[in-house]
């Protein structure tokens, strides 16, 4: 349904379709709303610190409900694009393998940033699409999954290391300046 002769000619008969353009438009719209509007600021503030947002006068419950609605809309849009663009019909529950888990991994690798998520999604999509091609060269298709899993592991490890460093810095006592102590002062 979303297929296009233009994209087939452009990409040597690949399955690329108008859904790609819809996704790019959705990402740009999402980025603009979240980064450039007061509505997006209220959503980000609520996500970062619910109590701080409440003290700033933001209606936190409204922001939470709206963010869930936006997430549901984007998930539904993605599902519709996959079904109508790739398969062309609606009964494909067997073919929908791990899209939810891949979405979480893409968000983690993309750093929950619209542009980062777009790039991470393209990377993970490339790895998934390349699996059959790798098999023609005798490479097991699981290599793509191993690469994807390794990327997620190392990104998560980076976040874990940053968290440990922050906790260690918080526990570390501040050193006093000996020159101030000799003068009768105390460095605080």
UniProtKB/TrEMBL annotation:
Q: Does the keyword Magnesium apply?
A: no
Localization, UniProt: Cell membrane
Matching entries from InterPro entries are given as: ABC_transp_permease (IPR001851)
Could you list the residue ranges that cross the membrane?
16-34, 64-83, 104-126, 146-166
Which keywords does this chain's UniProt record carry? Cell membrane, Membrane, Transmembrane, Transmembrane helix
A molecular function (GO) term: transmembrane transporter activity
One annotated Gene Ontology cellular component of this protein: plasma membrane
Which Pfam family, just one, is annotated for this protein? Answer: BPD_transp_2
UniProt topology in membrane: Multi-pass membrane protein
Predominant place of localization = membrane
PANTHER family in the cross-refs: ABC TRANSPORTER, PERMEASE PROTEIN, GUANOSINE ABC TRANSPORTER PERMEASE PROTEIN NUPP
The protein here is known as Uncharacterized protein
Organism listed in the record: bioreactor metagenome
């Amino acid at each position: 349904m979303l297929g296009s002769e233009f994209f087939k000619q452009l990409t040597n008969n690949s399955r690329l379709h108008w859904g790609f353009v819809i996704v790019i438009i959705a990402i740009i719209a999402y980025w603009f709303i979240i980064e450039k509007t007061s509505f997006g600021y209220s959503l980000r503030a609520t996500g970062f610190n619910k109590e701080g947002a409440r003290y700033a006068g933001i209606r936190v419950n409204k922001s939470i409900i709206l963010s869930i609605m936006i997430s549901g809309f984007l998930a539904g849009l993605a599902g519709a694009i996959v079904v109508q663009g790739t398969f062309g019909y609606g009964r494909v529950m067997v073919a929908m393998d791990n899209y939810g888990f891949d979405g979480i991994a893409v968000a983690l690798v993309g750093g929950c940033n619209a542009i980062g998520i777009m790039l991470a999604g393209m990377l993970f999509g490339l790895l998934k699409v390349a699996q059959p091609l790798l098999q023609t060269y005798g490479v097991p298709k699981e290599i793509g999954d191993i690469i994807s899993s390794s990327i997620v592991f190392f990104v998560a490890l980076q976040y874990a290391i940053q968290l440990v460093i922050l906790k260690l810095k918080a526990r570390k006592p501040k050193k006093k300046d000996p020159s101030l102590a000799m003068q009768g002062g105390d460095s605080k």
